[in-house]
Amino acid sequence: MRRRSSPLRATMLVVIAAMGLLPLSACAVGAGQAPPSGAQDPDVVAARTAAAAAEQDLIAAAALGEPISTSVQDTCKRGSYSAPWGPYDPYYWSCGHVTSWVVSTATADPAQLIADYRAHLAGLGCTPDEAAFDMTADYWQMYGVPGQNANGEPYTVDDLPGGTAVCADGRTVGVAFRSAAGFDTTTFFTYAEGDGETITNEPPNLAAIHARAPELVVVLSTSTGYHTVLRREPEPPSTPEPGYCACYSGSTCDCPGG
């Protein structure tokens, strides 16, 4: 089975991984013990509320259709720390908010839809990723129009990579083009329980999306890192390079460390 990659998904995962716009120092705790996330502290709640409002405003401006379904995910992720060699995250907790809309369209032509969103985002003052939009448009012409890829496998709008644009305050919006009938939530929404604290997990309404078949839909998504509790332990050292021994005739060797 082919796996499809999506700049939208990539955007979501990269932004979430980079969360931490408002670092806060950890309170006093025992050695090696993680402090509370602080997710319900008043200033953190205020930051979360502001992030949600900014995301809604951006997606509402970016949408060229009416929302069919919305999704909100808000979590505080635990950082990894494993001495002596890692993995290592420089935080105990990193909290982030993700807003996604699946919106209706007024055209059945993916090429037109790609061009419309590219122009619309530029008109908003955002900077579209030209390479991503070029690739999406080219893939539709090369594979979507004939209905198969270079290997002869079926290719539809649901296989298109999608695009991104950087808007005000450096916020990135992801754009993916899909069919209502073939829409698959696992392509975009990969939240898993047990990775930290869940504040909100509102998945999209799959039934409402599928009910719009045979229309095309657009998925818009943006995310914000709004709170970080930084780690106090030092970063583990890098894995040491293996030492080399200098050996001489007669089986005598000089090795690092004796």
Task: Please give a structural write-up.
26% of the residues lie in helices and 27% in strands. It contains five helices and ten strands, in the order H-E-H-E-E-H-E-H-E-E-E-H-E-E-E. It has helices spanning 7-17, 42-62, 110-123, 130-144, 206-210; strands at residues 23-24, 67-78, 91-104, 127-128, 163-166, 172-179, 196-202, 216-230, 246-248, 252-254. The strands form two sheets. Strands 1, 2, 3, 4, 5, 6, 7 and 8 form an eight-stranded mixed β-sheet that branches. Strand 5 and strand 6 form a beta hairpin. The model is unreliable at 1-31 (pLDDT under 50).
Helicity level, as a percent range?
25-40%
The value of Rg in angstroms is 23 Å
Strand content: 25-35%
**Count of beta strands:** 10
The overall average pLDDT, rounded, is 83
Ends: how far apart? 54 Å
The assembly state of the depicted protein chains is single chain
Question: Biggest β-sheet, characterized?
Answer: 8 strands, mixed
**Helical region count?**
5
